[in-house]
Write a structure and sequence with these properties.
The chain has 377 residues and is an alpha/beta fold. The chain has 13 helices and 15 strands.
Length: 377
Amino acid sequence: MAIDEIRKEIDKLDRELFPVILRRMELSARASEESALSAAEIRQREREMLRWATEQSGDMEPYIHRFYSSLFELGRAYRECNNPAGTKIRGILEDALKKQTGDFPQNGIIAVQGVEGANSQMAADSLFPRGNLMFFKSFEAVFDAVESGLCRFGLIPIENSSNGSVRATYDLLNRKNVSIVRSTRLCIRHELLAKPGSTLADIKEIRSHEQALGQCSEFLKTLGGKVSIVPCANTAMAAELASRSEFGDIAAIASHPACELYGLVPIAENIQNSDNNYTRFVCISKEREIYPGADRISLILALKHRPGALYEILAKLTALEINLIKLESCPIVGHDFEFMFFFEMQGSVRDPRVAAMLEALEQTCESFKFLGNYSES
């Protein structure tokens, strides 16, 4: 056949397929309304159809299997969007959207980890220019301060562009009863700070937060293992410790504002691995608040331990044209080789399709936690 004839035949088949697919999705939705079949029984019918189709497919078997799997997933997405169920998440979203939140506040009592000069402090000052900061020794103490109502908001680092995710934050988001209401990014420039008069040759020990140490790993390699590297709770705490050094042989990796605060000087500047070094912080609140312009959604999901479980979630998002921004797996403590997943996607819960998608995820996942719908600055 000539190429023009082939194209005409394809166009003809596409026009014939189009109404058939529409009709199938409509009938599938109607059957779901009328039938008393459980989700497991519906999946069994789909598996039987897949088995029949692939048995007839010959060499086309993997492609036919993918085609019908996608068709079934699209049908489920259509049914779920048009037949929303009364789930826990629906009540949560309705309550959150009823609140007259107004614009995101720029004041309040804000919990941050560390001391003055920490990156968390600088991020908090940027997000809350009129905020009253309270400092805590640990990330968990920040969560506890917010959860107890002592502080209205808390600011916690969640990932770095050079050194990856802060796993402790994911664990706390999963365990604590808080909501993400905003996120922000801070450009991080690291310096090696020491007491005046010290040189790089004098330094025997370098202290900093483990994330900062990871972000400066290339610089640390140049020291050839001659310097002891000691993690500590916070970059500003490291600077404070360096300022107490009796012999000036302890240095800290921290940001430049720590110089003035702790009487230090930089003995090496811009030592981070990348000039494009950003840390992302999430703002947490005890209240579920959704502010105007919210266009990001964060979830923590635990999936059934079976082949294709994650694919089904991703296929659902694809069917609804929802853009997935981040997908991170974290081990489930006490369960060998089982993982929970941190999802971040674009979308607003004010969109009925998105709300229906969240309901469907709540019903199909082993566990489901809605962390918030928010915007990033």
